[in-house]
Write a structure and sequence with these properties.
mainly beta, 6-stranded parallel sheet, 5-stranded parallel sheet, globular
């Protein structure tokens, strides 16, 4: 388990120089909802290689995305991931999963991340999906 009590950086940061990465069965918790800046629990940088995230959970109780995937040519597959938390959204980062990369696959997700932003921001934003399994469950306070 990775626990970020007073986060000043990401739980996992996959840099552009990484050819491929696998995160399997990892639990990451970001605390401190009184943050002055946002952080992403898991960040996949622009240009990073292929990534597989399988199982595990991300809890975002800090401002920022639980999972941020930036542009790139290599696929990202997220399977069996649980995303929970109670993030403020006051300093940016109001999405459970923020994805700007085409060709990504999301399967069997369980997303239950509440944010203080009541302006109707959805759980997924600025997202391109190549496939999303029917078993994926999404919930946001504005869309219950």
């Amino acid at each position: 388990m990775i626990e970020l009590d007073k986060p000043n950086g990401r739980g996992i940061n996959i840099l552009p120089s990484v050819g491929s990465a696998t995160i399997e069965g990892t639990k990451i918790v970001a605390q401190d909802n009184n943050a002055r800046s946002s952080i992403d629990v898991v960040h996949i940088a622009e240009g990073a290689g292929e990534v597989l995230i399988k199982g595990g959970s991300l809890t975002q109780n800090h401002a920022g995305q639980a999972l941020q995937i930036l542009d790139g040519d290599a696929p990202v597959v997220v399977e069996g991931l649980k995303v929970t938390g109670d993030a403020s959204g006051e300093t940016g980062g109001r999405n459970a999963i923020y994805c700007k990369r085409g060709g990504c696959e999301f399967r069997d997700l369980d997303v239950d991340l509440l944010v203080a932003d009541t302006a109707g921001h959805s759980v997924f934003s600025q997202t391109t999906f190549s496939s999303m399994a029917a078993s994926t469950r999404l919930r946001s306070p504005a869309h219950n």
